[in-house]
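Board notes (copied after class):
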Amino acid sequence: MAQKNKKLSKGAWLSIGALLVTQAVSLFFSARKSGRNPWVWGGAGLLQFPLPAIAYLILERQAKQKK
């Protein structure tokens, strides 16, 4: 049985790239504002979606509850 070659269009790749860059930039600035290793969060945001954003939001919420 032959496999079909499923390729994503250029628009899909651009959308994925824009999504990852947007997530990375927002995590970077948010982490820098709260003093939480901005380069680590920005780098993690470039690698995958949406786990870094979810993890950051959970950790940020826990830090605010402790204050």
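Comment from the instructor: The chain has three helices and no strands. The radius of gyration is 16 Å.
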